[in-house]
Amino acid sequence: MTAQISERIHLNGKDLSLLSTPLCDYFALAKIESPFKGNCTALWRGYIGSWEVIDNRLYLVSVEAGFDDDNKTSLADIFPGFSNRVFAHWYSGELRIPIGNQLNYQHIGFASTYEKELFLELDSGVVVNERIEKNK
Fold first, then answer.
1. Nearest-angstrom CA–CA distance, 127 and 136
2. Has residue 33 got a pLDDT over 80?
3. String of b and e for 101-125 (b: at least 16 CB within 10 Å)?
4. CA-based nearest residue to 103, from 91, 116, 94, 119
5. Confidence band (pLDDT; 50, 70, 90) for 68?
6. Any idea what the Cα angle at residue 46 is, between residues 109 and 77, rounded to 5°?
């Protein structure tokens, strides 16, 4: 498996990479087939999600098909009635956000390591804990 293109997250006024895929959990939990098709080995999920954390709540603000001009799926197509953002109430788990330089490249998924990594623990879309790990 090829290293994957990251999602995006806006957090504390900064635009950062997100090495987690909360929307995949939505499709799995809702038993809905993703409308996106992977057409690049670096983007098996077929889309790039943009997220933001506001008042400790995770929101999906946009999705774009990666390298696929024919797929014009919008946020409102997946979540009818929500064209600006969607509260990620379905997501419980950990978000991984790299900080600093890449220390070790791994040619698989999100396995590369970085100087620091911020981990946000979420329960039903709400941030309940955060920690920073320093890597050597």
1. 27
2. yes
3. eeeeeeeeebebebeebbebebeeb
4. 116
5. low
6. 135
